[in-house]
Amino acid sequence: MDGERLGGRVSATTPTLAEVAGLGEHRETNYVVVGRDGDDVVTLYGRGGGSSWSVIAADVDLETAEEVRLWFELTQHYGGEASAGSHPLGHVPTPDRGRIASARAISLVADWIRLRGLEYPTLGLKADRFEAGWSVYAPVDIDESDPMAFLALPVGRSVFMVSDLGRVKEVPSSIPPPQAEEMFTAEEAIFAARPLRKRSWSTSGTR
To answer: Which whole-number Å values give the CA distances from 177 to 22, 129, 149, 157, in the listed order?
Structure first.
């Protein structure tokens, strides 16, 4: 997943899904990024595990596209075996020492922010639990009953995912929370399994 560019195509019109799939097949890649010259937003297309192509993320910035591509790669092209009908990246075992407390997750994020000199609040942080750990963020006054309320977050205001193993990852607020949690859970499943089973996985084409 090093972002190697395999080739491109220039057109005066927006390509169709068939044209995108054709380019991807020709370049032997699982991903195609489409964007207008001089524009900061792109649309990411991907080939799923069943070989069908679809839009993965539409009209997002490059950082978000990279995050979504990682999540898609892990959930669609990871080479592990499923157990009891579930995907190997869909569940993270609880560490031997148990789950970390919300206060500890907030403390790790505050340290992360200070260490990197980020312009992000370190006081009043809130932590929400999900399967692989905690989602830590500076709360804003939004309507929690609105499923699109995350769009009201200040521009550039990130969310920090903290695993029970203590790993911290900054996630752009442009990624919907459920999707960010799925991405992080998939990554953490690999981190948790890595000491026990050494696997290698790669993406053909754009990596």
So the answer is: 32, 12, 10, 13
Percent helix, strand and coil across the chain, each to the nearest 5: 30, 20, 50
Q: Which residues pair with 83 in a beta bridge?
A: 86
Total-model pTM: 0.55
pLDDT digits (tens, 9 = 90+) for 27-43: 888 899 999 888 888 99
How open is the CA angle 73-74-77, to the nearest 5 degrees?
A: 60
In this structure, which amino acid lies at residue 44?
L
Record the tokens describing residue 124, joined without a space: 């009043």
Query: Which helix (H) or strand (E) element contains residue 122?
Result: none
Tokens of 146: 């609105």
Tokens 């995108």 found at: 20
Beta strand residue intervals within 40-188, DSSP E: 41-47, 53-61, 126-130, 133-137, 159-163, 168-171
